[in-house]
Amino acid sequence: MYRYESVALLDVIAAGKMAGPRMPASGTLLAIPDGHGAPLIALESETAEEARLNTRKNIENGVNAIKGAGE
Which pTM value belongs to this model? Predict the structure, then answer.
């Protein structure tokens, strides 16, 4: 299960329930199979279409930045 703690934190800050900075919240990493973070902390994509779907999944969960795993 992938979680979006950074997005939840941004929501708490935006609601004024806690003081905090403006920050990018990228949510779950995006990676190729067996890439950095895969499969534990990254959504794996074998094709461009899967990468688009995983990107949409992150956006639907409220991220304001997209983070791919580095090489």
Answer: 0.79
